[in-house]
Each structure stands twice: as C-alpha cells, then as structure tokens.
Write a structure and sequence with these properties.
The protein is α+β, with helices and mostly antiparallel strands and about 60 residues long. About 25% of the residues lie in helices and about 30% in strands. The chain contains two helices and three strands; from the N terminus they run αβαββ. A three-stranded antiparallel beta sheet has the order 1-3-2. A hairpin with a 2-residue loop joins β2 and β3. The protein is globular.
C-alpha cells in the first residue's frame, strides 16, 4: 500500500487489477498515457487511509 499512497496505475482493460485497487480503498483519479500506453491512475491519500492495526508502520 505504500506505493498506492502516491499512485497506482494499470491498463484500462485490466478490470481485475482495477477491482483490487478499488477494494483496497484506492480511488480512480484519471486516464492518462504512461510510456505511450493508455493507463488509469488510482491513489489514496494518507489522511484517507485507516489502519487496521496491521504490522506495517507508515
């Protein structure tokens, strides 16, 4: 999830990847180009993230 606080990207047609990002709490931000390929960007602000008392410290 650390990378997701900044941004996560995938191809628009990768619906399974998009679902995983959405279920993880990431929110769709924009369609864009990434190295001349179509991409969708998702992100999650640290202030929006809720800790579940996991072992990871941010």
């Amino acid at each position: 999830m650390r990378y997701g606080f900044e941004e996560a990207i995938t191809a628009p047609e990768h619906t399974a990847s998009r679902r995983v990002m959405e279920k993880s709490g990431l929110k769709y931000k924009k369609n864009a180009q990434f190295y001349n390929l179509d991409a969708v960007y998702y992100s999650l602000a640290r202030s929006e993230w809720r800790s579940d008392d996991s072992f990871y410290i941010l």
